[in-house]
Amino acid sequence: MAYDLVVVGTGFASSFFLAEYLARAPRTARVLVLERGFRDTRAWQLEHRRTTRLDADATFRRSGSPDKQWTFTLGFGGGSNCWWGCTPRLMPADFALKTHYGVGEDWPMTYADLEPFYERAEAVMAIAGSDRAPYPRRTPPPLPAHRLSDPDRLLAAAYPDAYFPQPTARARVATGTRPACCANGVCGLCPIDAKFTIENGLAGVYADSRVTLRLGADVTALDLQAGRVTAVIVKGDHNRDRTAGNERVEADLFVLGAGAIFNPTILLRSGLTHARLGRRLFEQVSLMAKIDLDGVDGFQGSTVFTANGYMLYDGPHRARHAACLMESWNRPDELRWESGRERQLLAIKFIFEDLPDERNGITLDADGMPVLHFEGYSEYARRGFDAVRSELDTLLAPLPVERVAFGPDPLPTEGHILGTVMMGDDPSASVVDRWMVHHAVRNLVVLGGSAFPTGSPANPTLTISALALWSADHLFA
Ligand SMILES: Cc1cc2nc3c(=O)[nH]c(=O)nc-3n(C[C@H](O)[C@H](O)[C@H](O)COP(=O)(O)OP(=O)(O)OC[C@H]3O[C@@H](n4cnc5c(N)ncnc54)[C@H](O)[C@@H]3O)c2cc1C
Ligand code: SF4
């Protein structure tokens, strides 16, 4: 049977795209969704204390920097199972780093272009946040902001234009499908289902009678003929039938939403080539700091991360070193040991953008397995670490600081895998266009953070979801 649309993956990118497609498609539309993982129930997840039965580490190999880790979830809903629900938008300048500061690359769209789609993605995720924000917004977030901690309040009073409650998909009040977040801080598998997941927020698209969902369907490659995709190749299901061969599934339009590791893997296995295909694999990078306070208790917030600080984010310094987003933690997993002073503490994560480096990327080994090569973070990011350390005393002056201890330098992963299928207007310098359609193969859409030309220090998933809506809106308008 041939389909109108085949979608690979069930994470944010695929699900938001599909929601927009179904809102416009005829009742006769036929959609097949192929998901490599399984739909492990909440009961199963909670019993096994893991988000999926699949071992992500067994699906790729690493080379280069021995310390670099890559974390993600393979399963129905993708990263929505394990994500922590932090949803800042990018800043307007993040879309034009080259133009403003002479580094990195410009995106093919502006903040203003994406703004309506940010709004729509925030509505679907029922984002909690403040109407005061460092970026322009036409409407307030759907849910009220979470309560700050007392150290946050001191910083917010000192930096009224740069310190805000964190926008988040962890519910502030019950939404009808999710209870209010109770700030226990184990969001990688939220025990009460308070954070947005595909299962609790967008499962309806997979229940639509036009959609067939196949689980355990590992898409290995695309079949290309005369510059078009004619079929996806699905690996034979050897659990059910040891003699099963690969299967071809035909369609008119093909959408890859398999994440920044497997999108390029599938394209490379299909014989597609481009100087930038698989290149520029990157993540943001972060430093943790524990700040002991004199006489001020922390942990009064109503969620796990309560605020974002933009004091070191945008400005002329980005010509020299990375922007930094501060994330205030309200997670009582490590208190002070001194009696009576256990809570006199603030933990801050300093998250830096990294500039994509052509040397970092994904190739295939002899078996077609992706090999993730990472040389290390850019000097641009490292200069950002130095700037934070040198400006820390001034930055934290509004707090009664006793001592600051930085954690391992840097953390081994942010869980935000980006780059590898860059978007842009110039087909010689990018793999997909501004609508995320492959420049040369026009019935192929490649969604997700793989398209990001640069990273910004902001968490990427709200932008990934907004871009999926933007792409579908254009294709099916
Ligand atoms: C611990 C952790 C915490 C995070 N917290 C945040 C956060 O607070 N805020 C934020 O913005 N981001 C966060 N992220 C990042 C976020 O999870 C990703 O940005 C997001 O999931 C990317 O969405 P996606 O739809 O592009 O890909 P994914 O969500 O990874 O979905 C890809 C889908 O494709 C499927 N798939 C893969 N290969 C194949 C194949 N060959 N055939 C068929 N299906 C396939 C996968 O099983 C999966 O369903 C976090 C990540 C981690 C690991
Ligand atoms: S802080 Fe707790 S309740 Fe809130 S989303 Fe995280 S795990 Fe769930």
Low-confidence stretches: none
Strand-pairing-aware structural class: alpha/beta
- Please tell me the CATH architecture by its name: 3-Layer(bba) Sandwich
Main β-sheet: number of strands, strand sense, barrel status?
Answer: 7 strands, mixed
- Helices and strands, in order, run as EHEHEHHHEHHEEEEHEEEEEEHEEH
Short description:
The protein has 477 residues and is α/β, with parallel strands linked by helices. It has helices at 12-24, 42-48, 97-101, 111-125, 150-158, 198-201, 204-207, 259-269, 379-395, 461-476; strands spanning 3-8, 31-35, 61-64, 163-165, 211-215, 219-225, 228-234, 247-256, 285-293, 305-309, 324-329, 345-352, 361-364, 370-374, 401-406, 444-446.
Describe what you observe in this structure.
It is built from ten helices and 16 strands. The chain has helices spanning 12-24, 42-48, 97-101, 111-125, 150-158, 198-201, 204-207, 259-269, 379-395, 461-476, and strands spanning 3-8, 31-35, 61-64, 163-165, 211-215, 219-225, 228-234, 247-256, 285-293, 305-309, 324-329, 345-352, 361-364, 370-374, 401-406, 444-446. It is of the alpha/beta class. The protein is 21% helix and 19% strand.
